[in-house]
Amino acid sequence: MFENTELALDVLQTLLERGKITYALLKDDVSIYELAPNFKTFLNAANVQVGQPVTEIFDALTCSEQTLQEVLSQKIPEYRLEYINFSSPGFSPRYISLYIWNYRCNAPRRLLLVVEDVTSSALIEQSAIQAHNELYLLRIRLGQANAKLQRQALYDSLTELPNRRYLDDALPRYVEFSKRYQTPLSLMMMDIDDFKNLNDGFGHDVGDEGLRILSRVLSKSMRETDFTARYGGDEFCIFLPMLNVALARILVDKIKKALDKELESFSLRFTISVGIAALTSDVASAAELIKLADDALYRAKREGKNRIYISGEKK
User: Fold this and answer.
1) How far is the CA of 99 from the CAs of 71, 102, 105, 309, 315, in angstroms?
2) Is there a domain that residue 144 lies in?
3) What is the DSSP code (8-state) at residue 31?
4) Which of 63-72, 172-181, 283-292 has the weakest average pLDDT?
């Protein structure tokens, strides 16, 4: 038993010398009764005196008197405050933890205050939290960058409409749905008449603005269930779920009127030609449906432009 006691005292002395912990005994009024030999140097506080309220030394214990009384009366086993930022004038900031237990050696009862320097652990934990937060921000930025790249890959930067790649992925699903549930699906191919002359005569900036105007008109004219994509150059592809070719033609008339209205404030006028095709049992794929609408568009161009031609229509 003596050897164990001697060992415990030796360990305590080592801890005190290494500056890892210090302690003090407190009276029931939480004033200091006795100090460890290293208490003042540990806290870099030469003015600490026996009889001084411990709350004057540790602001974190202010208003905790009731809790300390409950420790003293053993209603609660201990009072602990961890990672307290403790600073002394002229010294680097430190982090400490406070542990207060009921200490019964002889009457009257005392409180044992143990102060531990946890600066190293606190700084490591802060670094880990900072690294975690930085990683989280990097993941957010990576997600935003990926979303931006995905949008750039699938959307046309000039018109802000889906591009050919997006179209090639989406249209087969619309075709599959319409075939499975036997619902109508119409497709338009549309372009600006004499677009090359528009570019050559007025410049590419004017041509680009013409494309943007047409794309805005299409976006405003479509239902939420319709899909518009820039197919390439001045050609646009629109597919119209649950719409037959007769209703699709009515929609083209609406688009043309809206376009004429929009062009009133533009520096020049242009017209569009449109080819329309419907999904039927004879159409095997999305690619075939596009070809039928594209052929109808070229038929409209051959017949004088500024026209609408429906695939399979006899004139």
Assistant:
1) 11, 10, 18, 87, 96
2) no
3) B
4) 63-72
